[in-house]
Design brief:
Length: 225
């Protein structure tokens, strides 16, 4: 019985610890501290996002090192979680530019029912926070998908992605913000699915998919930095 109670207590503590860092603010804490000790040349670019950004660094680390890009993606995150860590993982690094990719996991309902207005509000809040601190912003489209393997109850992903992308694009255009449209270069127009040669699971890019994204993003980042 005593051993069972000890195991139960350990489980509760682990769950509590996980819940206490809902936004994963500790993920990049050490890396952020290291950057704080480095000279900031005024040309830093931070990529804020979810697993698509997180995996990018692993797929093609040279793209980040060669172009002095700082990856701050966390797998599975929604826009609400990104907003919660935005000050620590973006503002505190004092970048020249931030690239924001958010929305995939909102639509996949990773942290609760999807609300397009809330997702858009979070994206706008991150944008306004960056601008308030003199940081240039690049907004990007949500990548295409016709469903999520981890939540098959979502059956209308293409329509939701298209609608959110329209709002992000319109907001960017109305406010003079740079916008990179990955979606139109990677989608199967007839179905809204991720083109097979650019994805390995219908949601995340392959190396070939990241090459497309890099070709679209780099000229915009170069212009703004």
């Amino acid at each position: 019985m005593k051993q069972i109670l000890i195991m139960l207590a350990a489980f509760v503590l682990s769950v509590s610890a996980e819940a206490s860092d809902w936004a994963k603010t500790d993920r990049y804490a050490a890396a952020n501290d290291s950057l704080a000790q480095c000279v900031n040349d005024g040309h830093r670019v931070v990529l804020m996002g979810n697993s698509i950004t997180d995996d990018w660094v692993d797929f093609h680390p040279q793209f980040f090192t060669d172009n002095r890009l700082i990856g701050r993606g966390v797998s599975g995150q929604t826009s609400s979680q990104m907003l919660a860590r935005f000050r620590l993982d973006v503002l505190a690094l004092k970048p020249r530019v931030v690239v924001i990719n958010a929305g995939t996991n909102d639509i996949a309902e990773n942290t609760g029912p999807y609300n397009e207005d809330l997702t858009m509000s979070n994206i706008v809040s991150m944008t306004e926070l960056a601008q308030l601190h003199g940081i240039g912003v690049v907004l990007t489209s949500v990548l295409p998908s016709n469903g999520f393997v981890w939540n098959k109850s979502i059956t209308d992903a293409p329509a939701k992605i298209s609608s959110l992308n329209e709002r992000i694009s319109r907001y960017a255009q109305d406010n003079g913000i740079a916008y990179v449209d990955y979606y139109q270069h990677m989608v199967v127009p007839a179905t809204g699915a991720f083109a097979a040669h650019y994805t390995y699971d219908g949601v995340h890019p392959t190396a070939a998919g990241y090459e497309v994204m890099e070709a679209l993003l780099l000229p915009v980042v170069t212009r703004l930095r």
